[in-house]
Amino acid sequence: MVTVPCVVVTEPTTRAVFASGVSAKSTFVAAVVPASEIVFEDLLLLSQSEAAARTAASDYRSTVTDFRAAVYTSYFQLILLKEEIALLERQVRSAADRLDAARFDFDNGRISEYEYLSAQLSYEETNPLAAGKRIEYSAALEQFRLLLGLEADRQVELTGGLDFELPLERIIRRTEKEREDL
Description:
This protein is mainly alpha-helical. It has helices at 35-107, 113-148, 167-178; strands spanning 6-9, 15-17, 23-25, 31-34.
């Protein structure tokens, strides 16, 4: 036979609060609660709180990691688009030079109309590609600004690497300063 320590409450009261945080309202409370159950409930509540805190910390780390990944991806996409625009602009200039040379050669009878029209087509095809990349760059830059929480009219210069403070980290630090109970 095992003896279990217990708590017995048999006095009239309007409210009884047990160690586990459980409360009961009545005009008369009579209960026998094993002390091990009270300790178990307290430990269960404590472990649930610890689990919730660990989950919240894990979610925070995951959110920060995802946010950093999104910022880095957006940043390097902008650099890539910038390089593609530079390349397409060189191609447009090259196609324009070839068209001018083809026009000169066609006017002097050195090349056929087919070769001249081919040079003109090459030039006409490269212009929309460059314009499309510029539009894509503008949209990606706007997305980057939004991601960082910057105003739309703020100039962003892509130089060097990324070393930044997350807006979320700034908010947490400011909140911790304002609320000392955290």
